[in-house]
Amino acid sequence: MLEIKDLHASVGGTEILKGLTLTIEPGEVHAIMGPNGSGKSTLSYVLAGRDGYEVTGGRIIYEGEDLTDLDPEERAAKGVFLAFQYPVEIPGVPNSTFLKESVNAVRRYNGEDELDAIKFMKMLRGKTKELGMSDDMLKRAVNVGFSGGEKKRNEVLQMAVLEPKLAILDETDSGLDIDALKIVADGVNALRSPERSSLVITHYQRLLDYIVPDKVHVLAHGKIQRTGGKELALELEKNGYADFVGEAA
Amino acid sequence: MSVIPFMAATDTARALPGDDIPWLQARRESGRSRFDKLGIPTPKLENWKFTRLRPLDNTQYTPATDKDGQVEISKIPSIGNTQARLVFVNGRLRDDLSDVSDLPTGVRFGSIDAALKSDADWVQEHLGKVADDADEAMVSLNEAMLDSGFVLHVPKGVVLTRPLEVIYIGGLTDGAVAYFPRNLIAIEEGAQATLFKHHEGRGVGEYFANAVTEVSVAQGAIFKHYKVQAESLYATHVTTLYADVGRDATYESFNLSIGGLLSRSDLKINLSGQGAHAAVNGAYLMRGKEHCDNTSLIDMSVPNTTCKQVYKGVLDDESRAVFQGKIHVARDAQKADGRMLCKTLLLTNDAEIDVKPELEIYADDVQCAHGATTGQLDKTALFYLRSRGIPEALARNMLVQSFIGDALLEITDETVRSALSDRIVRWLPAHCYLAEEWKEIA
Known about the structure:
The complex is a heterodimer.
Chain A: E1 2-11, E2 14-24, E3 29-33, H1 40-48, E4 53-62, E5 65-66, H2 72-77, E6 80-83, E7 90-94, H3 95-109, H4 117-130, H5 136-139, E8 141-142, H6 148-162, E9 166-170, H7 178-190, E10 197-202, E11 215-220, E12 223-228, H8 231-239, H9 242-247
Parallel strand pairs in A: 3-10, 3-11, 6-9, 9-10
Antiparallel strand pairs in A: 1-2, 1-4, 4-5, 7-8, 11-12
Helix pairs in contact in A: 6-7
Chain B: H1 22-38, H2 55-58, E1 62-63, H3 66-69, E2 84-89, E3 92-93, E4 108-111, H4 112-118, H5 120-126, H6 137-145, E5 150-154, E6 164-170, E7 177-179, E8 182-187, E9 192-201, E10 207-217, E11 222-230, E12 235-245, E13 250-257, E14 262-271, E15 277-286, E16 291-300, E17 306-315, E18 320-329, E19 337-346, E20 352-361, E21 367-375, H7 379-386, H8 392-408, H9 414-427
Parallel strand pairs in B: 1-7, 2-6, 5-8, 6-9, 7-10, 8-10, 9-11, 10-12, 11-13, 12-14, 13-15, 14-16, 15-17, 16-18, 17-19, 18-20, 19-21
Antiparallel strand pairs in B: 2-3, 4-5
Helix pairs in contact in B: 1-6, 4-5, 7-8, 8-9
C-alpha cells in the first residue's frame, strides 16, 4: 500500500524528515508516536502534498506509484486522505456543498459519473446517521462555529464519504473528550478492511485503545527510531519519549 | 456656449429633453458654467486622489443619438418576476423593450423625457433637490448635458411587492459615445419599493456614462436599491448618487461591480430624520486592468440614526480598486450607530487596493466603528480543499465565494441575493464546475 524509503523533507529550508523509512501493507493500521517537533505533522503534510513541504530525497511509493510529484487533489483522488489536526473553517460554504464538490471531483478524476443532488444527499444522510451526526452540521458552513469535537467528527464524515484507501490521521485525538474519541475511532474502525490502511499519528496512547494498531513506530529527530507491536504504545505511555529524545541528540 | 473639452462637436444640434423649458435651460447653463470652472476631476482633489478619468483625456466622445439606441438586442438581463422594466440601449430609452403596463395607480416609472412632457412641475420640484451640490464637477457636467434618465415616484403608502428593473445596455456603437442620465426617485411616506439596475456592456464600442441619481425616502418608507455594474472593457462608468433618508425610513443598497474599464460610484447619503437607517453595501470583483472606485459619504445629521456599510472586493491580475468611505456624525446627532467595513482579497501581487475609511464624529454619545483589511487567499484553506480532491482552480473559486459571501448576507431581498450570487459565480473562472447550490450560499 505505502512504502516510504529514506524520505528527506524540508520546510522553509530546514530539514525535518531525515531518512524516514516505513512500509504499510494493505489492511494494516500503523501508529506513529513521537514527541513534539519530531516531524509527525510534517510527515502527514508531505504525504498529502502540501505546498512548502519539499521532498529533498527518498521516495513515497503508494500503490506502486511515486506520489512526490502529484498535486494534493490528485493524491486525494487516488485514495489518500488526511484528517487534519486543525480542520479549517470556510465561512459561507455549506458543509454539504463542500462534501459534494469533493466527492464529485474525485469521481470525475476517476472517470466515474458525478452523483446528482438527490443521490448524493441520500448517501450523505446514510453516513451521518452511522456517525451519529445531525443534519444541521451539513447545512452549516464548513467547520464554522463547530466545537472541537464536531470538527473532528466532520473530518471522519469526510473520510467516510470519500472512502480512502490510505487514511492519515494527524493527531485527530487532540482536544477530544472520551465520547468524541470513541466516535472518531468508530469511524476509522468502520473503514477497516483488507484493502484499506491507516496511519494514525498521535502524541498519546489513549486513541490506540480504540483504534488498535498492527504496528507502532516511534518518530524522533525525523526518523523512525523504533518499531513494535501495540504494546510499544503502552511502554511509551509509561516511560515517555526521553530515551528517544536523547538518542539522536 | 463652450464645448465640453472631450466632447466632439456634432454637426446637427441635438434635441435634448426639455429644450423648450426655461427653468431646465437655466439649469443646463448653470451646470455648464460650473463644469467649465471645475473641469474634469484630477487626483489633486482629495476625493479623486486614486482615480483619474484618463479616457476623458484621450477619447473624443459624441453624445449618443436616438439612432445609437436602435440596435438589435437579443437578450435582456432580468432577475425575473418584475413589476416593470425600463430598457436603455446605448443611453437611449427603448419603449419597445420596456414594459410599464403593470404599475399600480399613481406610481410613476418612466423616462425623464416623458416626465418632462407630462409632469414638468414634478420634475422641476425633484431635479437638483437632493443633489443640491455645486462643487461636484461630474454632477455639473450631468446637469449641463442631461439627455436621458428615468423617474420613479411611489406615492404615499403604496407598497410594490415585486421589484422594478432598469437595464442599461452599452457598447453597441461604432464610435465613442457619451450619455448623461439623470434619475429621480421619490419614495413617499410609508411606501416601499425595490429597484434593480443592470449595467451591461456588450460589443466593442467605447462609451462614457455619467449618471446622477437623486433619491428621497420619506418618513417610514423603505427603498431597496440594487445595482450590477457589468460594463465592458471599453466603458467609463461614473455615477453619483444622492439619497435623503427621512424619519424612520430605510435605504438599502448593494452595488456589485464586476466589469468596466474604469468605474466610479460616488454615494452621498444623508440620514436626515430620526430613526433613519442606511445599509450601504457592495462587492467588487476586478480582473485585467480594470479599475473600480467606490467612494461614499454617509451623513448622520440628526440623533438616533443608524448605518452599516460592508464592502468586499476581490482583485485579480493587475486590477485596481479604491474604497473611500466616510461616516460623518453631526454635533447633535447623538446615539448615532455607524459601522463600516471594507475587506479586500488580492489574488496576485500586481493587484492594488487603496482604502480610506474615515469617521468624522462631532457628537459625543455615539457608537461608530470602521475597519479595513487586505489579504490573500488562505493557503491552509486552499490546501484543505485540495486535499479533499477539489482541483486548485475550483478550490480558489470556492474560497473567493466564501470571502464575498459575507457581503451578500447583508442583502435582505432573497431573490436579489441569489441573482447577485449567480453573477459572482459567472464572474469566476471555470465556473462550470460549481454546483447549483452555490446560488444559495448567502
